[in-house]
Model the fold of this input.
Amino acid sequence: MLHGLNLRKTQDGSKLDFEYSLNFFKKSLNLLEEIFPENGNMAAIHLKNMFNETSPGFFKNLIFRGGPNINPGIISIKNKDSLNYHIYSFNKNFAELGITVEYSDIIQECKATLRKLNKQEKIDFTWLIELMVTN
Done:
């Protein structure tokens, strides 16, 4: 939740700054280790695993809501290029912590949401539907 509230955009305002997110996450992990010196490392591992598991859902929310549930509308992913940029940037920054997101997992996560949309709502996501067909 804190990560969602602390998302920042790049200077041009069109992309998320995952370098900032990484630094914020590292500070959170360090704080846990300081507060719980005997179990802080286990808590950090748990947070990393949870972040890894929830990353496809995070990207689904970026696509459909423009941000996480707690911070919708922060950015707009309206095409394949924007999605690819954000995936690349996320993986480039978080890989050092063993956190990455797979393209196929994001597509899978999006399928269920697309099924719930009516025909009119799906028009905005034609690019995503085309991606699903080709992948």
Notes: The helical segments are 2-5, 18-35, 40-65, 80-94, 103-116, 119-122, 126-134. The mean pLDDT is 91. The two ends are 31 Å apart (CA to CA). Residues 2-8+16-134 form one domain.
